[in-house]
Amino acid sequence: MKRPISLLPLAVAAVFPFISVQACGPFFSEDVFVRKMGADRPADFLAGKLGVLLPTYNRADLTFAYRYLNGGTLSPEEQKPYLPARSADEQPKEIQPAGPNPVYYNEPVGPADEWVDARGHYAGANPDVHPVKQFNTVYRAGFILAGEYDNCQADAFRTAIATLENRAKSWGPHSPELADWISAQDAVFSNCGGPRDYFPPEQKPVIHPAQPSDAPANAPLLLRQDRAYQKAAAQFYAAQFAQSRAGFQAIAQDNASPWHGIARYLVARTLIREAFLSAKKDDAQEGMADFNSDLMKQAQQALESMRNEHLPGISPHAVQQMLNLVRLRTEPEARLSEISAALAGPKPDPDYKRDLEDLNWYLNNKLDQTAIRSDFGAEEYGGRSLPDFDAAFNDAADLGSASPLIDWLISFQSPSDAAKQHALQEWQQHKASLPWLVAAVSKASPEDSQVSALLSAATHIPPSSPAWATVTYHRLRLLIDTGHAAEARRELASAFPKVQAIGNDSVLNLFTALRMRTAPTLEDALADAPLRILEASSEQQAALDECFQVMQDPKRKYDCREDKGTLQFSRDAADILNNALPIDTLAQAARSKALPAPLNQSVAMVTWVRGVLLKNEKLAAQMLPLLPRKLQQQAGTSAGFHWQMAILRNPGLRPYLDPGVQRSASYDFVESFADNWWCANWGSAYSQKNAPRPAESVAFLTSATRAAGEKETAALLALGSADEYLGSRVLDYAHAHPDDPDVPEALYLTLRMIRYGCYHASSEVDANKQDDRVATIAREVGAVMRQRYSTNPWTRKAAPYVWPAKKIG
After folding, report:
1. Which of 591, 597, 664, 649 is nearest to 623 (CA)?
2. Which range of residues forms the domain containing residue 640?
3. pLDDT of 440-478, one tens digit each?
4. Is 564 found in the same domain as 487?
């Protein structure tokens, strides 16, 4: 069968406001050193090797973890639905929709296909069956809710197949009775799906429901009983719920019908389906999918009346599962308590998959539109402020009171101070609770009064515990943050064999980064500064890939280098090198044998650029021999303007190291998405603070060394963007040395920099805005080129970049 890829797995697929939206992109993220959304090795995680638990993990993973922290395990049957065949590293990229219409793909054979195949043995002209129905709902607020749901579910097709085979035996494979039955069943299933695209209400095609014809007057009793069931089913799939319910009720009262047991159950199903599809669309159920409460309660009463009976055609377990679905809406507090107790263990849960899906569905709907979790790291908070997180956590207090599991999930994921205080309080009250120890130690800060007690408790967690990696990591973090780096380093030495035995790259990177912070010397710190990249997703990697692609044209030559290794500086290491080390210490790092050769050169290039910008020509000269040969040739030995011109020639040069793949790996290549040279706020990139990101403490760094590094970083930031700083220097030099033959090229390079650098990428450019310094530089450069170098080849080459003229004196 062919089915559309759905953007969401549940009924609601997308919300389309009546606005025109133009997508921008592509979108990049930092290279990944620690997977924040889930474990590196899901199979190991499900088996209880939890690694270092992060609050950004999805709730399903954290629910798995809670079972182990609570003293239980996941049985093989409980693991089976979630056990991937491959690790995260090996998973294929997910197919994405290419536009507003569904994208079709060949999916594995399903129950609808099995029905079509079974039917083909007895009749020709197989119909095309679409189990999924799409719908639009127009809200008075002026937007469309477009969605889909499995109208005809797997059990319907399996029941049809079993009935088809039985009737073929009873009536004969070529009998008119079987042909009549198949024709009626085709009509039933023709109501399953709808139009394959999302239509505005005024354009949506009118689909007339198909209804099975009456059975012949002389038909066998069984065929007439089947026909009554087929008609009620067709009305159900056509959303004619009152008629369908009446039909099923009549069948339920006919004890002679083979369908009377399941018909009673289907009466409740009609109430449930109608409850969802007939709700008042402007009366939201506090963030949940709308439903008609009266109809849902009627369905609950109907299901409760039959759950202890053994009705033919339907199992008590199926009745109970449907009742659970209803009670999650009519009695959410009680049902959440039951689900949580089953999921938390330590006993196995025979309905683990369904219970986990129900819990996640409920919590996702209630919480995911609030500031309850931080998915973007401790600094960014996804654009939200700390008060937002405190307010969201306090608002979720009633939901958390439903069960200890939900309380722990909300508290562990929230970055708010209120969540930290709650976790510390819960741990103090329940010292034997491993889940709350994990939450408390993960959130604790050096200033918390409970730190000493937490550090002591953490020492008693054995390596065999599923919490060992998390608790040990945060114990060592707290030791470092409280000034006990030497003690932390000794403990790390004994812990590392156990960390390596875990076989989890994210865990290894986390502990290695901690060890870097305990380094007593620069060499020790540099030895642990490079970490293995787990996913190269940065714009720097994209620039390198683009450079190699462009160089497939033999006429395009660049000095791009591909590092076959995977070791790069993480964000923490880059912050220390960028914001806490003075230039002379960076020069030592550039020569250090503790770093891989490609990173030595990256540090040397940054140090050289810093030397040029800070006018430390002596140190810049010391770095020259460490630069790529092509860059050495361009820079030459003449400092000042010509070194600045070398930076202009090479858009990947900048006064800072990147986290992950270095832009200097493609230093002479102009990449397509404006990651060229540097912006004015480079020290606060990926941070909302208008200041350099504070570097973590490192043991070898003295206060004097750190102060010197921070002072130099501040001086570099004060120079502004490359557009402004280098552009101003070129104009000054052009006015002072108009006869220098390099000036026309420098003017051209300045316009190229403004065109492909941060200025165009970061704002709506107004070429006539008089108070815009970069725009003014561009106009003045263009004017100088036209008035003084009108016949120079660089002026003709600069034509696409020249801005409106402004008279210069």
Report:
1. 591
2. 539-720
3. 999 999 999 999 999 999 999 999 999 999 999 999 999
4. no
